[in-house]
Write a structure and sequence with these properties.
Length: 241
């Protein structure tokens, strides 16, 4: 008989991701200022190019961010009527490519919480992005063993979560979605009838923000998830929007 399961997001929920992007953006800001361009404005433009690239590609692809860095550099060169230096452009793009060679760092509590939850529930991972890249991250994280199955999508919406529930034989109303994105985890989960826990990670990509469409729980540490699921101490339900 079908029962409940727990579906986890990967990036910025179980492993650090956006923090590294933010560090790269900071290095970009410094580099652009050294070139005589306005740093803050450059980072703003970079975010615009980045999100536009992701939309154009129909989802996050590895090259979106490095390309956006180069585009921003060229944009400001043209704005200031300067000839772009190909070497400088390459240096700028390298800030983006370097992100993918970094070691995986787990979010605090990720391993402990999965280990505990796995004792009572089947766990699933639902992540979005480039399949090869996401799979490599799952493997490098050492967390794969806690999941019954890993799902990688180009985009995450209600249809994808309902697909998982069907595929894994989960009862939606008894299942949970845990993630840091209102847009990709919580709102699609609420629309699908799941119980949702928003992990309010201090580093969350602007692209993931969206007003809530219903009720959900909110935690600022993964350890709090244990208090909500199966715990006696129930936290207050967040009701917004
Ligand atoms: Mg995420």
């Amino acid at each position: 008989m079908a029962g409940g399961g727990i579906i986890f997001d990967l990036d910025d929920t179980l492993i650090e991701t956006t923090r590294y992007f933010n560090e790269a953006k900071e290095r970009f800001r410094v580099l652009m200022e050294r070139e005589g361009f306005p740093g803050e404005e450059a980072v703003k433009k970079l975010n615009e190019f980045d999100i536009a690239n992701v939309k154009k590609m129909g989802g996050f692809m590895k090259e979106c961010f490095p390309r956006a860095l180069g585009q921003t550099y060229e944009y400001f060169c043209s704005l200031y009527r300067r000839t772009p230096d190909p070497q400088k452009k390459e240096e700028v793009e390298r800030l983006g490519w370097e992100l993918f060679t970094r070691e995986i760092e787990l979010v605090e509590g990720a391993e402990e919480v999965l280990k505990e939850l796995a004792k009572g529930y089947p766990l699933y991972l639902a992540t979005k992005g480039e399949p090869q890249l996401q799979l490599a991250k799952v493997k490098a994280s050492g967390l794969a063993r806690y999941f019954r199955r890993v799902y990688i999508f180009r985009m995450k919406g209600t249809a994808e979560y309902l697909y998982i529930a069907r595929d894994a034989g989960l009862k939606v109303m008894e299942s949970w979605i845990i993630g840091n994105s209102m847009k990709g985890d919580i709102n699609p989960g609420i629309r699908g009838g799941f119980n949702c826990i928003h992990f309010d990670h201090p580093h969350t990509w602007d692209f993931e923000k969206e007003p809530p469409v219903g009720d959900f729980y909110r935690v600022t540490s993964l350890f709090e998830v244990l208090e909500i699921i199966g715990g006696e101490k129930r936290r207050l339900l967040v009701a917004e929007g």
